[in-house]
């Protein structure tokens, strides 16, 4: 096991499906790092068991919450308060350096070179680019930093959006101005909104994209995939073609690499009954 | 006259109305710099005359064009080929340093501190934030740079979007990695797409915004303003409330500071007939 790790988080079965695809997409591109998932106690047994076979380590953490409904309403995302739970990742001190990945990302190409970066590195957010997007970041586990973050999070208006992104941007507030090497290239965290706003750039840099991030309300696991015709159905209205291709890519990994494990574990648990 | 200047561009009467608002919004916040507008020969006499009373200098330039229809179709903006004309701004060698502003921006607060920056400084684009947005940038006029840019622009695929933004990003290609001081804060060039993608950040930084940029297909001068009830009409569907407020702000300057000049010039030209 490497002393460096990719870390993700899942507090629901839906996000856990995402985490399973994160793990498989990392294995597919041949990562040399350990894979860690933080979970809360809400997951079904089957999902939990499958996480255990896919990740090197499963860590149960306590849920933290911002309870900031005003700002979460602005985002139309009441579920994001629980993303404060993310800061538990600083407790993983047995790793010297980590890359946190949201459970709604898909790795397309090798990203192990992220470990050459230092805390705190993240890519600009394609909404307000003076903020970083908190779906992908490089950090150093440290109980001390965790303690400071919890203290910070307990203050009023700790997060300007009610989620972890507003919190971490307030905490690592010198990201914008201090050191350009802490700015990850956007190709390490290409968020879905990009596909509407600047298509020529997406086409230009398409083959450089290392990771896509299904940020926003529509998550891949909310769609339905038909393996017979290779088509997706569900709330796909208004989604850009490039976005649809990435969603399909996500589902191919789900179908080819995650489902077999889920059904194997399911059969075993049936037999054990 | 200052040896430093704000420079804008208008090749049509519509964009020229924008340029007039740019000038008045800069005067309103008390700029100490010269105001320069580059125009082509398509403008009506009344507009041209009014530009002459609002700007310190009006420079007639030759239109350049990318004729890159494939990429401009991706943007749904066939009119953007002519934005190559922008690079004429490097010819203004009588100024030691300049800030280029698109004609579709509105200055809300003093931005003279931009002249402390060096060529080439620009703010990240909120669509693909590893590119800069070319609506606001700091540069040093130089015939030599102009010559290089024209040569560069004449190559195939000089611009990945068919407009000046793709061209300038290809030319100043080390902007992303070389020097963080060349990254202008986003508050100096807040583009319209932001208002849909990350509202909590907009609210958080609202009072810091120095300049809004009506980038995209809807331009303020395409709307209608009713001074009786202070309301806007036109194709406003789907526009965010904050965006509407800025559009209204643009129209107040148009109504209070530009129209009086236009009608005065109009009366005088009627009398001279
Ligand atoms: O109910 C939730 C919501 C979020 N998350 C975790 O927090 C991350 C951030 O939330 P999300 O990706 O939905 O935010 P977005 O990227 O859409 O802003 C997710 O990827 C998950 O890792 C979770 O485990 N349970
Ligand atoms: O027909 C045109 C199109 C553009 N422009 C100039 O080029 C700039 C860039 O175009 P625009 O602002 O429409 O591009 P956007 O910011 O929407 O990408 C404008 O602000 C004007 O200064 C012009 O003079 N005539
Ligand atoms: Mn996410
Ligand atoms: Mn513009």
From TrEMBL, chains A, B:
Q: What EC number(s) has UniProt assigned to this enzyme?
A: 2.4.1.186
User: Is Mitochondrion there in the keyword field?
Assistant: no
Q: Can you name this protein?
A: glycogenin glucosyltransferase
In the record, biological process GO terms are:
glycogen biosynthetic process
Residues of the whole record sequence present: 1 to 273 of 506
Task: Select a single GO molecular function from the record's annotations and give it.
Answer: metal ion binding
The record's principal subcellular location, in a coarse class, is cytoplasm
Q: Keyword annotations for this protein?
A: Cytoplasm, Glycogen biosynthesis, Glycoprotein, Manganese, Metal-binding, Transferase
Give the record's family classification: Belongs to the glycosyltransferase 8 family. Glycogenin subfamily.
**What class does this enzyme belong to in the EC scheme?**
transferase
């Amino acid at each position: 096991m490497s002393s460096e790790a990719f870390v993700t988080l899942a507090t629901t079965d839906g996000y856990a499906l995402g985490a399973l695809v994160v793990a498989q997409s990392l294995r597919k591109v041949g990562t040399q790092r350990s894979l860690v998932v933080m979970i809360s106690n809400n997951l079904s047994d089957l999902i939990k068991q499958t996480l255990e076979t896919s990740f090197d380590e499963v860590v149960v953490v306590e849920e933290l919450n911002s309870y900031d409904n005003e700002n979460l309403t602005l985002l139309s995302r009441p579920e994001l308060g629980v993303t404060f739970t993310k800061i538990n990742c600083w407790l993983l001190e047995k790793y010297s350096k980590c890359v946190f990945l949201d459970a709604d990302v898909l790795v397309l190409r090798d990203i192990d070179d992220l470990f050459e970066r230092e805390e705190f590195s993240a890519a600009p957010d394609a909404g307000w680019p003076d903020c970083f997007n908190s779906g992908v970041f490089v950090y150093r586990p440290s109980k001390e930093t965790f303690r400071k973050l919890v203290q910070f999070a307990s203050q009023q208006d700790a997060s300007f959006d009610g989620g972890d992104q507003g919190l971490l941007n307030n905490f690592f507030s010198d990201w914008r101005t201090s050191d350009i090497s802490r700015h990850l290239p956007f190709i390490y965290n290409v968020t879905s909104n990009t596909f509407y706003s600047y298509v020529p750039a997406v086409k230009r840099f398409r083959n450089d994209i290392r990771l896509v991030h299904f940020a926003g309300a529509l998550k891949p696991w909310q769609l339905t995939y038909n393996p017979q015709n290779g088509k997706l159905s569900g709330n796909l209205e208004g989604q850009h073609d490039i976005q649809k291709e990435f969603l399909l890519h996500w589902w191919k990994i789900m179908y080819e690499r995650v489902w077999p494990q889920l059904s194997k574990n399911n059969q075993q648990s049936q037999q054990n009954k």
